[in-house]
């Protein structure tokens, strides 16, 4: 036998090994799992909010209570959010009271008071 026929024979034997392979997916007994992308999906908790009171106030045209947005927060988170809103309102009123010209004057004054980055600071006597 020549080398070519030996190679064909070996190739044929290798191919015979793959003829008894079962194709398709593995079928398991029992209830199917909710598997997505390699893991079992957990159900997310849903927070129930009082939708009926919100819809009634929306129908009447009443303004929403700002605290209703924070019902799901802890007391510390609620205080933080309220304080943040107060600070934001103060900043907005401060900016709104100044005209563009006044803001530019303040900014130029701030820049004039800054030290130059290329100045050598004087440290110690001499």
Would you kindly provide a written description of the structure presented here, covering whatever features stand out?
The protein has 126 residues and is mostly helical. The chain has a domain of 48 residues. The chain is built from four helices and two strands, in the order αββααα. A two-stranded antiparallel sheet has the order 1-2. Strand 1 and strand 2 form a beta hairpin. The longest helix has 23 residues. It starts with a helix and ends in a 13-residue tail after the last helix. The model has no long low-confidence stretch (mean pLDDT 77).
Structural class category:
mainly alpha
Q: Enumerate the strands of the largest sheet in spatial order, edge to edge or round the barrel.
A: 1-2
How much is the average pLDDT? 77
Radius of gyration: 37 Å
Major β-sheet, in short?
2 strands, antiparallel
The portion of residues forming beta strands comes to under 5%
Along the chain, the helix and strand elements come as HEEHHH
| Number of contiguous helices | 4
Net shape: elongated
Distance between the termini: 101 Å
Fraction of residues in helix: 40-55%
pLDDT < 50 stretches: none
- The total beta strand count reads 2
Protein name: CGI-like protein
Organism: Zea mays (Maize)
InterPro entries: FAM32A
Region (Disordered): 42-85
């Amino acid at each position: 036998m020549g080398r070519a026929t030996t190679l064909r024979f070996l190739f044929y034997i290798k191919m015979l090994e793959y003829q008894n392979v079962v194709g398709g997916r593995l079928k398991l007994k029992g209830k199917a799992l909710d598997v997505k992308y390699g893991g079992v999906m957990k159900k997310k908790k849903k927070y129930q909010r009082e939708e009926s009171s919100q819809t009634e106030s929306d129908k009447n045209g009443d303004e929403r209570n700002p605290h209703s947005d924070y019902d799901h927060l802890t007391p510390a988170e609620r205080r933080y959010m309220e304080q943040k809103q107060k600070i934001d309102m103060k900043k907005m009123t401060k900016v709104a009271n100044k005209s563009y010209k006044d803001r530019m004057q303040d900014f130029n004054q701030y820049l004039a008071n800054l030290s130059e980055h290329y100045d050598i600071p004087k440290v110690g006597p001499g």
